[in-house]
């Protein structure tokens, strides 16, 4: 019986052995897909050990962020004011179609004070360039977080990462396009103005979302002592789980104070080599980073030229003895030669020219016929706005619209002379517009037609 009883038990054990025999026991794919999903690739920037600088920390990042938190809103507001100055709700000036709710704040741009656009755009460009070292240092301080693994841990984390994408991408785009426009001009596949405008809204949207998420963390970090300390860590290295402090830092070769000092000196250098283009005075000589900000000699050519006659396709035939100015209001039309314009009552205005690139001139001595007098010449009461058309054949702003308040200002001229001399060809001969507080590109050159009431 024992044998009979034992037989089946032995067979069952044999069966069990045979069942377990085929193939090796599966092993957990350590370093495979699970490791990739959990810890990231075995090398590269997703590994915390990749980032070893001992300078990174929550307080450093918060200090740089606080500077940007003050500067960026000023940049944004002055940029919006620049948009309003372009009168984008006048059809001929609107370079951002379908702006919708983004144009909610638009208002008629004033002519007083006459240096208003010079101030707002000068601050916008100068501050933007000055903040470049701060922005780059801020991005350097948080770069480990951009590669933190896994990319998305939850819905809330996904929203935070999306805000960071808008913030970082928008910041790089806005600052890069702004600097390139100042330095190189017209290097974009489309118009700089709408690209920069919409990019700024993307950037600021990301900034608002990011501040809402991170402001408490920044405040706690700023309350710590010393430039490198994080909250709750007397060693100054910050909390181990903040993702900014290197788990295995390299030997320190410079302090955080040194880094902040270098960023500050970089910003100061950019300020001193830029601000003179709009501030004027002795600093104008130091504006080496402003291509148009350092003025040539006095006279009709004593201020910068963005668009030359040759670039605009304006020939001698367009501006020679055959040139005529057509002034129109509905069915009434008057055609004038330059000699007939010179015979009309002429006035003088001391006004600067200010450009979207940030450069501006001192007050120049303009002489010409008031736009309001030309409106009265064709019976345009009010006076209404005017569509100004140019002989320009290439490039942007061959025409521009002016509002009624700009036409009515007694300092607004169809200028024939500047600084005691006839206009030079590059500055708009035989006639150009000059209006207080008007962006330079709307002070149309080589004017051939004034259409009152057509805007």
From TrEMBL:
Give the residue ranges for region: Disordered: 1-31, 224-253
Please provide the record's keywords in A-Z order. Membrane, Transmembrane, Transmembrane helix
Q: Where is the composition biased (Gly residues)?
A: 225-235
Q: Which CDD domains match?
A: SO_family_Moco
Which residue intervals define the domain Oxidoreductase molybdopterin-binding in the entry? Answer: 322-452
Which stretches are transmembrane?
Answer: 60-86, 123-147, 159-180, 192-213
Q: Name one Pfam family in it.
A: Oxidored_molyb
Superkingdom, taxonomy of origin: Bacteria
List the protein's name.
Molybdopterin-dependent oxidoreductase
Q: Which organism is it from?
A: Nocardiopsis codii
| Highest classification ranks of the organism | Bacteria, Bacillati, Actinomycetota, Actinomycetes, Streptosporangiales
